[in-house]
Design goal:
There is one protein chain. The protein has 249 residues and is of the alpha+beta class. The protein has two domains: 115 residues, no CATH class; 120 residues, no CATH class. The chain is built from five helices and 16 strands. β13 and β14 form a beta hairpin. α3 crosses α5. The structure holds zinc ion. Pfam families: HECT_2 (PF09814).
Length: 249
């Protein structure tokens, strides 16, 4: 889970390019629950308790209080009331001032890219957060692959498969060790719409901006430096091995 460290209240959400007010009222900003909270909800439901105040038990989506926005990785999720009051619509969401992509519609919720928000982006470090997402996914869930879709070029995807986790990697000469995960990754361009649909149904999917897509590519390419050349493998010319080493304290 990524923790938001910016101010708890903001005077709306402002487009970084044209200063259009995407949300034009005071909002509370909070971190979204961890990626695994849906599993927790399922456990709770077995106990016949009433969580309907917080969670829509049919969709398993959290009910966001009217004045609240939730930070989820590279996006901020708007409450239904904020969506209606500020007429947020479309997928992708287009800024009414500068016509740039500012957000997206995922699982019944409107989300705005934090990188597009003038008064929020300084509290956001994509490189750090995307590593945490990949690392945590690797520790928790080896069944699904991770997909990062480039929102500015909808047919471009980076697919990441976690091969193993909890590996220990020597950190330096003092023989300190760090946890590491091993991933395969490949970039898929010009995805056929049917393949796209299948991929997003069966894998954990994140939508990212073009600039974020390029940062992720760079991180994965740099990851290979940790592995000896002889150990790098290629499968059908698509896959490369990469180590992600990260020290989460
Ligand atoms: Zn704008």
């Amino acid at each position: 889970m990524l923790t938001y460290s910016g101010p708890a209240k903001l005077d709306g959400l402002v487009c970084k390019t044209c200063e259009y007010r995407i949300v034009n009222e005071e909002i509370k900003v909070k971190s979204a629950p961890s990626e695994n909270w849906k599993e927790v909800v399922e456990l709770w439901q077995c106990h016949d308790e009433d969580f309907s105040q917080f969670i829509d038990l049919n969709t398993k989506l959290i009910k966001i209080p009217d004045e609240v926005c939730l930070i989820r990785f590279n996006q901020i999720v708007l409450s239904q009331k904020l969506v209606e009051a500020n007429q947020v619509q479309g997928d992708p969401v287009i800024c009414k001032g500068c016509n740039q992509i500012t957000g997206t519609y995922i699982e019944g919720q409107y989300c705005i890219f934090i990188d597009m928000i003038q008064n929020l982006r300084q509290y956001f470090d994509f490189s750090k957060d995307v590593l945490a997402i990949i690392f945590n996914h690797g520790l928790d869930n080896l069944k699904q692959d991770l997909l990062f879709i480039n929102m500015d070029d909808n047919k471009q995807i980076i697919k990441i498969k976690v091969l193993g986790s909890h590996m220990l990697v020597m950190k330096n000469k003092a023989k300190q060790f760090e946890k590491s995960i091993k991933v395969l990754y490949n970039q898929i361009d010009n995805t056929n719409p049917d393949v796209f649909e299948l991929l997003t149904q069966f894998n954990k999917t994140f939508k990212v901006k073009e600039s974020e897509f390029q940062i992720l590519k760079q991180i994965l390419e740099e990851g290979q430096k940790f592995l000896h050349k002889k150990l790098q493998t290629f499968k059908n010319g698509l896959y490369q091995i990469s180590y992600l080493i990260h020290d989460f304290k």
